[in-house]
Amino acid sequence: MITRRHLTAAVLAAATAFGAHAADAFPIPGKTITLVLPSASGSAGDQVLRMLADKLKDEWKVPIIVDSKPGAGGAIGSAHVAKSAPDGHTMLLGFSALVQAPAFGVKTPYDPLTDFIPIARLNDVPLVLLTGDMSITSLSDFVTKAKANPAQFNFGSYGAATTGHVYSSLINMKHGLDLAHVPFRGTPPLTNALLGGHVKSGVSNLDSLPHVKAGKLRVLAITGTKRSALLPDVPTFSELGYDITAGGRYWLLLPAGVAPQTVDKVRDAVLRVIRMPDVRQKMQEIGLEPASGEREDVAGDMRKEIDYWKRVVQVTGIKAAE
């Protein structure tokens, strides 16, 4: 005979089983996964997300799209993900702007440390000082010529209140220069301006690596505590006496509130992709240094980045409104 107690126990057991299954129901069959790029299409970050999408859609058997939501230094795309449904189907490519916002005094509708769940560090993004003037042979040569003829020299970057803006300001300060800062809306237009001779120099990532290899652009210095395997003959800024070490980083993030089982599924799959030899090779070809593909303290990494940028930005006095 089925008593009320037996019926209640059965219902509770079924509910518990259903809840466990629902929490672990990732991906939802037929539901599209969206990888949000909080910047313009065509960048290295765009290419990284498309590599992930190509690999993960085969494993998860669901549609995966890359959705570019540029604007406000990455805040528009980041805010979209922060308030998205916490079911694991919306992910964010986090990059330097996410952790730099507090240093620049940017007010955002999210907290980079509490409104996202870090999944993995995808790669490091070396930053370089580039010039299209091939008569300039080194950073010291650049400084010497800029002092002699400052009106003919300037610094381009991929946006105001960005890493490139900060680092060009540090170079100015070190040498008593006052070279104009020319911001562009992303790295592709900055690269085009360098190739066309519209700006004398620019701090950027290595989206431009093919142009460097073709002899159309020259790298004068690169970030990092040691020389990059991508450009072993190029000195680091720190080698040359500059307090410039941090490049960029790409992280994959989920919105806060995603079930732990889903977080683990996503993390394990993404780390497998990072370890794939063909993916690592493609990352290097576009000027990126792949992460290890092992579990890391990504949240701790982001906290260190926030502290670094607060210190460096304070030295320059740059604010987001500039």
The largest sheet is: 6 strands, mixed
Structural class: alpha/beta
Tally of helical runs: 11
Assigned CATH class of the largest domain: Alpha Beta
Q: How much of the residues is beta strand, in percent?
A: 15-25%
What string, H for helix and E for strand, traces the elements in order?
HEHEHEHEEHEHEHEHEEHHEH
The CATH architecture designation of the largest domain is 3-Layer(aba) Sandwich
Write out the strand line-up for the largest beta sheet, numbering strands in chain order: 2-1-3-10-4-11
Segments where pLDDT lies below 50 for 5+ residues? 7-23
The CATH homologous superfamily of the largest domain:
Bordetella uptake gene, domain 1
| Alpha carbon gap, first and last residue | 77 Å
Cα shape? globular
What share of residues is helical? 40-55%
Number of strands: 11
Compute the number of structural domains: 2
Mean pLDDT: 90
- Rg, nearest Å: 23 Å
